[in-house]
Amino acid sequence: MTVLSADALLEIRDLRTWFPIRTGILQRVDRHVRAVDGVDLTVFPGETVALVGESGCGKTTVGRTILQLVEPTGGNIWFRGINLSMLSADAFRPYRRQIQIVMQDPGSALDPRLTVRDCIAEGMDAFAIGASAEARTQAVAELMRKVSLDPDTMWRYPHEFSGGQRQRICIARALAVDPALLICDEATSALDVSIQAQILNLLADLQAERRLTYLFITHDLGVVRYFATRVAVMYLGRIVEVGPTERIFSAPRHPYTKALLASIPSLDPDRRSTRPVALGDVPSPDRPPPGCHYHPRCSERLESCSRDDPPVVPFADGVCRCVLALSNREARINAG
Amino acid sequence: MSAPLLEVEDLSVAFPGEGGHVRVVDRVDLSIAAGETLALVGESGCGKSMTALAIMRLVPRPGRIEAGSHIRFDGRELRSLSVPQMRAVRGGQIGMIFQEPMTSLNPVTMVGEQVMEAIGLHASLAQTQARERVLELFALVGIPDPKQRFSAYPHQLSGGLKQRVMIAMAMAAKPRLLIADEPTTALDATIRAQILELLRNLSASTGTALLLITHDFGVVNEVADRVAVMYAGRIVEEGTRRELLSRPRHPYAQGLLRSIPRPEARGQRLEEIKGAVPRPGHWPAGCRFHPRCPSAFAPCPTLEPERTAVSPTQGAWCHLVAEESQR
Fold it and tell me: Least enclosed by CB within 10 Å: which of A85, A105, A260, B107?
């Protein structure tokens, strides 16, 4: 697992991001919330990797750690073969330009006191892109046309735009510094479905045109199945399964992935499909269960699951972190 | 056909705004039969939540229900009830649950007590009986270890459990109608599946009718019997779940369904509805959807469409559907 893929754009190995919980008047560190607890993930150029999971699973923290908005507790992040975790803040800056983020709430992601022109040009100013302010204004107009906004509105303020338009502004701002990797953290979750379609189409066009790579952080499995190339499923700080989208949806290996898929409401009037498969509730990430984090909710658990950490079982098309995957794989090897 | 349990006729809700009052709900007609589940679907700002609040006579000030609106429940006109009478209906014969179970519970009172309070108000049972009834209700809505949860405070419960407590509270007085406003929107996928199953089972086992407010057609398909689609304050199409999902006739309903990312559409562009939903007070004349409609023609910008019956149960407010049905 430590072998680096030569052609990977982003390679995350054993990433851990823990947040201390302080208690008492001395504010001693009592324990840690292990938001991200040993994550391995590889992203290749031009693909869309979806990082899916329920609230509190750590998917947003993975994105924030890649951007160095929070400091990792351990592990490494390679970007184009450079170990970002070893870089100083100054040395990281050029890489920060190549990794941009689009967040869920376009309302709070934009500075209400800046005009749209300045919102979009903020990154260009920071990285000294463009010869002059005028050149940057030209570039802003070009970007606005690209995301189907009227350049004549660039001197207005964000509150004058609808939610969907504000998300277009956020996308234009991210594109302004010409990134290679765009982290979309629930970028379409707050939008109405007809507006979500507009934004997904825009992201698809931009990807085709600029060979952009997306890390798509979301809880919406419908969007994932439509949009992603590969899927990584996260549960309580760990990735439990990785695989190509079609296979994940047609033949999931991890019991948690199966439970997630069974919870997708159907749109086929002949079929009502949701079945509550996962038992009970998601435990708090500050006190994850021992052994496999999923075992208290798992309907297929074995006795050993509450005790032993599940093995990371490699398959030709991904991994599955479950002891059952191990036996399935052996059974198949023996049969073959 | 017997009289419906709830019959809403010509319901309009207005708020003071630019140049007089602005309607946010405009002449809405709805009916729900006993035991039936009706889904009211639409995008944000279409007036679906305000319709639900108006039925409960809970429109926030300075908004008001306009003259000429009728809300008949079980044969009674709710608009003519006194405030104490209306309070007895609310939580008695009509229960309500909201999207955010976190903000609907009192943080300093044990959840069992809160449900007991709801029962005390409407049935005045003895203390021990009330407690027994709460435990029964907790079991009904699938709360594990009801005795232990009785003394829990809201912060000690997960989002899914809090929503179950809210449902228990709404069901406490055995209401004939439950209004649920986006009951699963704030919940995680695996928990949403649990709550959807609970809502389905509840209406089957108790005979309670359900008015489900949602923006999610998946939720509609999982729970509803009939569907009404709202756009810019008006109902634009109604029909059975099967009719709406397999043969929607209004271009807006069609566009909404086609814009949902589906696995079959992988690699293809999603169908978009161009433009954005107009704000109340800025609704276009004629058919309100016409500036965004791919099939708009001559009458659409000026003439408001009437309901065209497509089947005994399906109707659409659309000039194109009207013209096609005349051929």
Answer: B107
Distance CA A283, CA A290 (A): 11
* CB pair distance less than 8 Å for A266 and B246: no
Q: Is the peptide bond before B62 cis (omega within 30 degrees of 0)?
A: yes
ipTM, two decimals: 0.83
Taking any CB pair shorter than 8 Å as contact, residues of chain A touching chain B are 54-55, 162, 164-165, 192-198, 200-201, 204, 219, 221-223, 225-227, 249, 259-260, 262-269, 272-278, 280-282, 297
Place of tokens 């008006």: B234
Q: B98 vs chain A: nearest CA distance in angstroms?
A: 18
Judged by CB atoms closer than 8 Å, whether chains meet at A194 and B190 is answered as no
Residue B291 has phi, psi (to 5 degrees) of -65, -20
- pLDDT, one tens digit for every residue, chain B (327 residues): 567 999 999 999 999 987 788 999 999 999 999 999 999 999 888 999 999 999 999 999 999 999 999 999 999 999 999 999 999 898 889 999 887 766 778 889 999 988 888 777 666 677 788 888 899 889 888 888 888 889 999 888 888 888 889 999 888 888 999 999 999 887 888 888 888 889 988 888 899 999 999 999 999 999 999 999 999 999 999 999 999 999 999 999 999 999 999 888 888 889 889 888 888 888 999 999 999 999 999 999 999 999 999 999 999 999 999 999 887
CB contact under 8 A, B222 and A272: yes
Closest CA in chain B for residue A267 = B218
What domains are defined for chain B?
Answer: 6-81+215-260+271-326 (3.40.50.300)
- Flag whether residue B196 sits within 8 Å of chain A, measured between CB atoms: yes
**Which one of A105, A193, A209, A250 would you mutate to disrupt binding with B, by most B Cβ within 10 Å of its Cβ?**
A193
Q: For residue B183, which residues of chain A lie inside 8 Å, CB to CB?
A: none
Q: Quick check: B67 and B96 in contact, CB under 8 A?
A: no
